[in-house]
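Retry 2 of 3 after timeout on previous attempt. Resubmitting structure tokens to design endpoint.
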């Protein structure tokens, strides 16, 4: 046997002796026999083969030690998997508890439904369950470590304890943040309730003042006033629009709101919130939306003066025209061609609908005065539109919707005042 081989055998011999000597403190008085072991042979098997016959204590000790090592290895692998699982869950919880992004303002591709995010209660419950599971695993590991001394187990226990401490701090911080948000929402709700109560009281007083005027004026001689940019002040038309293959929409508007006058008119149907919309928001020009398709209108109306505007449209080639104060200002085509305006919808004045009858956004609300809204299911001629803008005796009223006080319900503090076109302009 060469000196190199003998050196390897002696090293293995010393390793086995030291290993068994280290474990002797767990086994009372036991006789240990140290022997050289070939380098390619299993240590425990060689120990058993070379043990003194009948020495059951040595055999059981070696097998117990081997089983302990395997169990600790399995425990370490399980706890490593737990750490990876915990890190993944924490990342998901943090992403779910973030602040929601700003609402989309692109009129051409509006978000009509919105995503439903996980609530703070679900996030906290998930974190709590994760912490409880980890604490239970840590207690099991501590019990196992007390019965089987292991440096690796103790190191893993410390690692998990530190990780749990960090998580508990994060959960406490998140709870405090949620409580602050709830407190802020509660204050905002109370403040909004006070504002709405005040507006309702003012609306009632205005309605009482209007009663005397209403008895002496025609039902179509009135204007709607939207003094504030809110998400709860609007008027609702009592009846829906029919199916239409052509249309004309005309009205009087007065506003000096900036940026953008907002949304004078919004018609939504099931499945399409932007079936018919007039909107001017931000620094964009006024837009006509039909079936969520967009045409930019060349209107200049936010100067604080009364203006008469009309838009016409037909399904054939999606042709449209825009008139301001009786004069044609622009035209175009390919606006929702061959798409009829659908029936069974809801017509709202003063707010833009992101869903049928709701989803109002204060930044898109109309601010100003609106009067004499009329809708036809045909394209009016240039002469007919000029008669409307100049208050001619030949001016027609809408055959789909005509401006009448009895045709509207008003909400949120919008008010009605006497108005006669062309007599009190500007």
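Retry 2 succeeded. Sequence:
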């Amino acid at each position: 046997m060469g000196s190199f081989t003998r050196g390897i055998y002696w090293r293995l011999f010393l390793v086995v002796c030291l290993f068994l000597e280290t474990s002797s403190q767990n086994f009372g008085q036991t006789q240990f026999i140290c022997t050289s072991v070939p380098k390619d042979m299993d240590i425990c098997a060689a120990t058993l083969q070379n043990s003194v016959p009948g020495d059951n204590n040595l055999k059981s000790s070696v097998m117990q030690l081997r089983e302990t090592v395997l169990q600790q290895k399995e425990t370490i692998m399980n706890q490593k998997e737990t750490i990876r699982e915990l890190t993944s869950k924490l990342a998901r919880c943090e992403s779910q508890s973030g602040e929601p992004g700003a609402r989309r303002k692109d009129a051409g591709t509006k978000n009509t439904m919105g995503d439903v995010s996980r609530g703070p209660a679900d996030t906290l419950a998930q974190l709590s369950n994760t912490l409880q599971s980890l604490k239970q695993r840590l207690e099991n590991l501590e019990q196992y470590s007390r019965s089987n001394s292991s440096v690796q187990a103790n190191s893993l226990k410390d690692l998990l304890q530190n990780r749990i401490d960090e998580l508990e701090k994060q959960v406490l911080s998140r709870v405090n943040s949620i409580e602050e948000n709830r407190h802020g929402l509660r204050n905002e709700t109370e403040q909004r309730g006070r504002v709405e109560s005040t507006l309702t009281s003012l609306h009632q007083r205005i309605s009482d003042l209007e009663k005397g005027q209403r008895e002496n004026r025609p039902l179509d001689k009135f204007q709607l006033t939207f003094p504030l940019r809110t998400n709860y002040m609007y008027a609702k038309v009592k009846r829906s629009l029919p199916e239409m293959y052509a249309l004309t929409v005309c009205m009087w508007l007065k506003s000096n709101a900036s940026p953008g006058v907002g949304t004078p008119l919004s018609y939504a149907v099931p499945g399409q919130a932007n079936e018919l919309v007039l909107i001017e928001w931000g620094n964009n020009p006024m837009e006509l939306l039909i079936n969520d398709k967009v045409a930019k209108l060349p209107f200049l109306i936010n100067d604080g003066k009364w203006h008469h505007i009309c838009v016409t449209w037909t399904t054939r080639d999606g042709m449209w025209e825009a008139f301001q104060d009786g004069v044609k200002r622009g035209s175009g085509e390919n606006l929702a061609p061959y798409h009829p305006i659908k029936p069974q919808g809801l017509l709202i004045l003063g707010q833009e609908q992101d869903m049928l009858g709701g989803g109002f956004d204060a930044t898109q609300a109309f601010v100003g005065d609106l009067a004499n809204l009329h809708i036809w299911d045909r394209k009016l001629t240039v002469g007919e539109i000029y008669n409307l803008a100049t208050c001619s005796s030949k001016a027609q009223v809408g055959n789909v919707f005509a401006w009448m006080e009895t045709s509207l319900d008003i909400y949120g503090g919008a008010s009605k005042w006497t108005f006669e076109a062309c007599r009190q302009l500007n």
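Attempt log closed. The longest strand covers residues 246-254.
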